[in-house]
Amino acid sequence: MWFNSLSRALGCCLVIVCQSSMASSADDSPEVFVLNDQCPAGFARNAENHCKLDSLYNNYQSPHGSGVGGLRAGLPALRDGFSPRVIDLGRYLFFDPILSADHTVACSSCHDPDYGFADGLARARGINNVLLGRSAPSLWNIGFFDTLLWDGSKASLEEQLVGPLYADNEMGNRPDQLLRDLNGNTIYRDLFRQAFGTSNIALDHVYEAITAFEASLVSLNSRYDFYAHGLQTALSPSELEGLNVFRSFVSRCGECHTPPLFSNQEIAIIGVGEPEGRPFDPGAAATSGIPGQRGGFRVPSLRNVARTAPYMHQGNFDSLRETVAFYNGGRGHAVPEDEDLLIHWHIWDPKLREEELDRLVDFLHALTDEGFMPDIPEHVPSGLPPGRAISRNNLTSR
Ligand code: HEC
Ligand code: HEC
Fold first, then answer.
1. Which residues face 43 on adjacent strands?
2. Ligand 1 centroid – CA 143 distance (Å)
């Protein structure tokens, strides 16, 4: 049984290799922009021309996991069902700095594929190089989430993306300028016609296309997943030891970082200390108004976490080893003296051995899978250089 499943999963991987090499030769010529009629890798096209996720996890039921670390737990619903062309249009928009007020910042400036769709910085930098209050999270598997942002304050991708587009310190744009810039670009008018049947560009279509692209960023074929589907040898002995620590009642990691998403999407107060000189971040309490959520953050997914250092809401830790060691430091050890937080009951004093912490890190590396990486455009319709993370220029964040 698992062999059939596995060869199906591997089949998907082989398909992407061909698809991406074909697509990149088309991207090499800057003048020609033709939207892809095929669904991204990992998706199958249905009779309505909608791309639906094709994953072995669709065969597993129990959407919220079955206890700690249930291997065959199902996934929450994905925001899928967009047409191939809408998804591909979203890909160009995501990488195009034309979306920002001064045409220097794209979504991909802070969510760069080479940094796991994060940016490698402790705190992100927006328009005019302004330093933001928090770190840019990875966008892998973000289409499965309905609790978005570090404080869990947004419920859909559309609701979230207007934040960065129009925030003065992120992309600084205004709806009327965005529409003017896009409608003034003949390539975009043609691409929106290809995707939506009209070259009169509307904001809802812009938001839908970006959402469609984000929801296509799926990572479910890591070594952990092969193991979960039944391939016993997919994890090395040290990764397997790490998985066992991860889902044990001692470490309790799997209680909050619930497979297969490695997040239960809940707000949890774990009491991470801020980097030196930074004020205490009230987290969810500031947006929900619920005092008991002070210092609470939405449990992040751990997929591709090895690609997205530094860690936690302000890049509080440089490495996975430091991050994992935090949980061994004793309940509330990093909370400022003048704060009285309702630390989650799964955060305690597990007294893990140094080797067990090392094994946890080994296991987190087994959650890496970027097999369905989309094509990164070399040219975008505006003719501007596609947005990439600032870390590439060796700018430091602190
Ligand atoms: C200037 C950097 C920057 C830009 C530009 C930017 N983001 Fe973000 N993004 C962030 C930061 C920082 C956060 C976390 C903010 C918070 O939670 O307080 C974030 C969070 C997100 C999240 C939520 C992730 C999660 O785990 O809940 C999504 C989705 C997202 N961004 C998508 C986008 C899209 C789409 C665009 C372009 C329209 C974009 N971002 C532009 C920095 C940026
Ligand atoms: C009570 C729920 C809970 C438990 C138990 C828990 N975590 Fe977390 N984890 C969180 C929350 C919430 C955050 C984000 C906190 C922040 O940014 O301040 C987080 C962040 C992380 C991060 C950083 C992710 C990123 O992208 O920055 C890693 C790695 C991590 N946890 C691993 C673990 C491991 C390993 C264990 C077990 C030893 C564990 N967690 C136990 C809730 C939990």
1. 53
2. 13
Q: Is the beta carbon of 35 within 6 A of some atom in ligand 1?
A: no
Task: State the pTM of this model.
Answer: 0.93
Going by the DSSP 8-state scheme, the letter that residue 386 receives in this structure is P
What tokens were used for 337?
A: 């003296």
Taking the centre of ligand 1 as the mean of its atom positions, its distance from the CA of residue 26, in whole angstroms, is: 29
Atom of ligand 1 nearest to the CA of 135: 12
Task: State how far the Cα of 290 lies from the Cα of 181, in Å rounded to an integer.
Answer: 40
CA distance 160 to 211: 10
For residue 356, the surrounding DSSP H or E stretch is: helix 354-365
171 Cβ inside 6 Å of ligand 1: yes
Residue from 123, 129, 142, 149 whose mutation best tests the ligand 1 pocket (most atoms within 8 A of CB): 149
- Segment 125-138, tens digit of pLDDT: 999 999 999 999 99
Q: Distance between CA atoms of 226 and 220, rounded to whole angstroms?
A: 9
C-alpha distance from residue 291 to each of 151, 297, 340 (Å): 13, 13, 11
- Taking the centre of ligand 2 as the mean of its atom positions, its distance from the CA of residue 342, in whole angstroms, is 16
Separation between Cα atoms, residue 119 and residue 136, nearest integer Å: 6
pLDDT digits (tens, 9 = 90+) for 231-285: 999 999 999 999 999 999 999 999 999 999 999 999 999 999 999 999 999 999 9
Is the minimum distance from the CB of 299 to ligand 2 under 6 angstroms?
yes
Give the domains, in start order, of the chain with CATH numbers.
Answer: 2-219 (1.10.760.10), 223-365 (1.10.760.10)
